[in-house]
Design brief:
Length: 255
Amino acid sequence: MKFVVTLFAALHFLSTARGQSLHHEELVSARDPSTTTLSRYCSSFQFNAEVNNFVNGWLVPGECVSRIKRYIEKGQYAADVEAVINQARIYVKNLTVTNEAKKAWVLDIDETSLSNVPYYRTHSYGATKFNATEFNAWVDQASAAALAPTLSLVKELVSLRWNVIFITGRPESQRQVTVKNLKAAGYKGWTKLLLNAAQTNARMTAMAYKSSLREGLVKDGYEIWGNIGDQWSDISGSAAGNKVFKLPNPLYFIP
Ligand SMILES: [Mg+2]
């Protein structure tokens, strides 16, 4: 019953997922040029996006595309990813774990383990509506590169015998291309790859199904010590993990 209620709440919220039914102005307040410079407006947009303050989700405002492009392409994005992963590395080094067999790290895939920046480069850096057909065509190429710091951390975790568990919003139908892409990008030795079996036309939110998958892991005895994602929906909800790490993503929002 609880699941059904969650599902309906999720479906309701999905009407705004990735800004598909609201205008930009209803998601992100328009800029008042008499009081706010473009630079400050876009900086505030990026801040609010990263800390998850937008009530109905967001799309990148058109006038902020050049800022987001600069952020992604000129090194700050890579530096921020590196800084987040360095904290995860410090955390893991200082852990005392007793249940070695069931110690687990959960990682998201898109914009956490694999980078879709080449796709967003040709899709206005997030300023246009999400196009599932075009995005799936990109995913099917299985050519996304790893986020290098994440790959490096995963290699360390695997060598330390952690259970590395990928949980992704990609549908089960993309399992083969996802495995192919993960391997091509350098990932190996993971314990599980959990895709979204429930993802149909009437999708539930990422937060709801990722929570249910993590609850399943805990039921199977796994202890989730760390969880890394680029969306708040990766790292909130139930069984989120003892410590979560939020990677930057100013390109898109998934509820
Ligand atoms: Mg992601």
